[in-house]
Prior knowledge:
mainly alpha; Multidrug-efflux Transporter Regulator, Chain: A, Domain 2; two-stranded antiparallel ribbon; 4 helices
Amino acid sequence: MVNRTTDILSGDIIENESSLSLRQLCDACSVHAEYIIDLVNEGIIEPSGVQNTHWCFNGMSIRRVRTARRLQRDLGINLAGIAMVLDLMDEMERMRSRLSLMGDRY
């Protein structure tokens, strides 16, 4: 007899234009509000709204928070280093997009 296991993946599709509260972002990324506040203070994510009780985050914030957690957990990078790594990753993505557009023209 063969025992088979099945892995089930689940996820949420979030548009970049989506608006998330602080609590929703914490829930989506499985982090505490203090961690999100630290990321905001470091400039890693940028909310709209003045006070953290009224903050709104876009869908891209989920990706940045999750990436920040992985960088911190797996590589031991501090928040200042995470900010720099994420900025460089964003720049690489912009450059790849430009190269792709240039390749389509020629």
